[in-house]
Design brief:
The complex is a heterodimer of chains A (232) and B (121). Chain A has 232 residues and is α/β, with parallel strands linked by helices. Chain A has a single domain (3-231), classed as Spore Coat Polysaccharide Biosynthesis Protein SpsA, Chain A. Chain A has eight helices and seven strands. Chain A has a seven-stranded mixed β-sheet, with helices on both faces. In chain A, helix 7 packs parallel to helix 8. Chain A starts with a strand and ends with a helix. The mean pLDDT of chain A is 87. Chain B has 121 residues and is mainly alpha-helical. Classes of the chains: A alpha/beta (232), B mainly alpha (121). The interface between A and B is medium-sized, with 19 and 11 residues.
Chain lengths: 232, 121
């Protein structure tokens, strides 16, 4: 079965080619699928210019969750055994794709999260992001009884089982922490592997102060509701 | 004087309720409004029509639930009715978003499939 890299991209014209070239150099054995989430710039054309890249153009902007899920649907329908999610902004290092894919390939985990914080004492990033990450960790530990240090990381590897599950159900916005719960509640094994990440090469991050607050409330509410729901 | 005033407002209320009901029916007739939503608005209009025709009802109702000032009961009914309608809207919008997301994803995947042609990876 095939192994693919899913790259959600919204207005990443400035970064996408560099990301794709780095992937071609570091992980040439993967199929590459760019999900262009209704970009208003030249993201699609830029990605199409790179050889061997499959581009899925969404006619309108769905948000990161809907875009990534499109990648899962593609992976599911094409019988992929492994899917690695890599952000289109260049913060995830293609040289570490192999590292997060390894435990999934070896059958040791159903999902692997590339964590920036696994081996570190203090979190980088702004105050609000740090506070948010700390809260997620507390909730994680309380509800799942295990330590996920970087539940906001979008650098992940999924096996077939996880792909099929998330193709069916994946949150719309700020999906990463919730996805961990969806997977864990179905009994899938989620593991973390330490990785390095770069600060953004160009463009702007989607995390601002107001959004951080919304992020916190939304994700914790969603996780709470998920726990109230039976079975699902 | 008192009587003229109350009858005046009663007539206005009846006219208002009838206009609301007529407007809703017209929207349904022209297929501008789905029955699903129309039912809530018709119920609202109906309640107001009944309350404006039988003025004593509002007094009885407010006495029953312990509201000393009947117009306050009217606001209560209005707010509860609007809340129901708004919650119904939120549910409908959530459903629409979910449907729209599925359609957009499917459209993107189908287009990509068509580009690569049959048999291509």
């Amino acid at each position: 079965m095939r192994e693919i890299i899913i790259i959600p991209a919204f207005n990443e014209e400035a970064n996408i080619v560099a990301v794709l070239s780095a992937i071609a150099a570091e992980a040439p054995d993967f199929g590459v699928v760019v999900v262009n989430d209704g970009s208003t710039d030249g993201t699609s054309a830029a990605a199409r210019a790179v050889r061997g890249v499959k581009v899925i153009d969404l006619p309108v902007n769905l948000g990161i969750g809907g875009a990534v899920q499109t990648g899962f649907l593609y992976a599911r329908d094409h019988g992929c055994s492994l899917a690695v999610q890599v952000d289109g902004d260049g913060q995830h290092l293609p040289s570490e794709i192999r590292k997060i894919a390894a435990p999934v390939r070896a059958g040791e985990a159903d999902t692997v999260i590339g964590s920036r914080f696994l081996d570190k004492a203090r979190y980088p990033g702004g105050l609000f992001r740090r506070a948010g990450i700390a809260v997620f960790q507390l909730v994680n530990r309380a509800l799942l009884g295990e330590r996920i240090t970087d539940s906001t990381s979008g650098f992940r590897a999924y096996n077939r089982k996880a792909i099929e599950l998330l193709a069916e159900s994946y949150p719309d916005d700020y999906p990463e922490p919730e996805a961990v719960y969806i997977l864990r509640r179905k009994g899938l094994r989620v593991r973390e592997v330490p990785v390095e990440m770069r600060t953004r090469a160009g463009g702007r991050s989607s995390i601002t102060l107001g959004r951080s607050l919304y992020y916190m409330v939304k994700v914790n509410l969603a996780i709470l509701i998920m726990n109230l729901r039976k079975g699902a | 004087m008192e009587d003229v005033q109350t009858i005046r407002i009663q007539i206005l209320a009846i006219i208002g309720s009838v206009l609301l009901l007529g407007f809703i029916f017209e929207l349904i007739r022209r297929k501008r409004l789905r029955e699903e939503f129309a039912i809530l608005w018709l119920a609202m209009g109906g309640v107001f029509l009944v309350l404006s025709v039988f003025r004593g009802l509002l007094d009885k109702f407010s006495y029953l639930i312990g509201i000393g000032y009947p117009p306050a009961a009217l606001f209560l009914i209005l707010i509860i009715g609007l809340m129901f309608i708004l919650i119904h809207f939120s549910v409908a919008i959530s459903k629409l978003k979910e449907t729209q997301k599925k359609l957009v994803q499917e459209l993107g995947l189908l287009r990509a499939e068509r580009e690569s042609g049959p048999g291509a990876p």
